[in-house]
Amino acid sequence: MSLERFISEAISPWMKKNGPDSDIVLSSRIRLARNLKENTFPMLASMEESRTIVDTVSKEMLKSESPGGVLELLTMDDMKANEKKVLVEKHLISPQLANESKHGAVLLSEDESISVMVNEEDHLRIQCLFSGFQLAEGLAFANDLDDWIESKLTYAFDEKHGYLTSCPTNVGTGIRASVMMHLPALVLTQQLSRILPAINQLGLVVRGIYGEGSEALGNLFQISNQITLGKSEEDIVEDLAGVVSQLIQKERAARELVMQSSKLQVEDRVHRSYGILAFSRIIESKEAAQRLSDVRLGIDLGLLKGVSGNILNELMILTQPGFLQQFAGETLSPDQRDERRAALIRQRLKLEEHNS
């Protein structure tokens, strides 16, 4: 395995599996924040202390196989800026690890379902990714991985406050549970704008595709917990799962509504978007995301045949700036990226037509 292996394909192996309700919930993620006892936390650590953390963590975690298989270490210092951008676009590392960490690193499993970031905001950010709606399964697996790591490293833990973290909002369980949802019908019927405030009042937060501060491109929304203290991991995940279940029901009802009340208009929208993607010579990322969302909705509603449902997952990542430049082998201007994005989408759709 090598860095090239992780940055050459947009779709991670775990994404190719169709999990429960994967037409609406694209992925489930469990992330645990952990720090090592008697070590300066990353925000205040010196360069030498940060380097020591990477050495200590990698030495212990590469000794044996993890519950999710063999892990491979990639260090940020050895990577080019665009290579790190690609890993961010694949959700394998955070923008903070890529751009701001001192001697940051990441340990990745072969199928990319495990990502352990080192020297991000905390010493360890343990991330487990599952296809579809699998929060409970994700928590069980993350706990197994966490126990395996804790058998090798001693965490900073307080009996009263729980796991100690750099940011107070992570103190306690240190858990962030989240799902990535495709909600085009709730957006089309203008219901989502009324639902979002209610979700926020339940202690959950709704963000864009790349988390805090990012835009909800292509009708993709990341929903996660805000509270980590005073509740168990199981309760936090159960609360989030309850809201997600309701959103799935509402999205399905909205899809039925648009098919009953305006099927021709939806079908026209889907096929127009497909046509634009199939024939455009220039397309910006925001428009591409919206058109891909329309196409995925058309696939899920049975209005488009012979096109893989994974096309939204794949092209949403493949058409990001990092991937476009990685394939080009050079830095591209915004205009050049728009041209290459359109060409790549055309080629991908032609491949779909050929395969079908």
Features:
single chain, two-stranded antiparallel ribbon, 12 helices, alpha+beta, 356 residues, eight-stranded antiparallel β-sheet
Quick overview of this protein structure:
The chain has 356 residues and is an alpha+beta fold.
Proportion in helices? 40-55%
Kindly, what is the distance between the CA atoms of the first and last residues, rounded to a whole number of angstroms?
32 Å
Order of helices and strands: HEHEHHEEEHEEEHHEEHHHHH
Profile the largest sheet. Answer: 8 strands, antiparallel
Estimate the mean pLDDT confidence: 92
Principal-axes geometry comes out as: globular
pLDDT < 50 runs, ≥5 residues: none
Helix tally?
Answer: 12
Strand content is 15-25%
How much is the radius of gyration in Å?
A: 21 Å
SS content category: alpha+beta
Number of strands: 10
- The neighbouring-strand order within the major sheet is 2-3-4-5-1-8-10-9
Written account of the structure:
The protein is 47% helix and 15% strand. With 356 residues, it is α+β, with helices and mostly antiparallel strands. Helix 3 (81-89) packs across helix 11 (321-328) and helix 9 packs antiparallel against helix 10. It is globular.
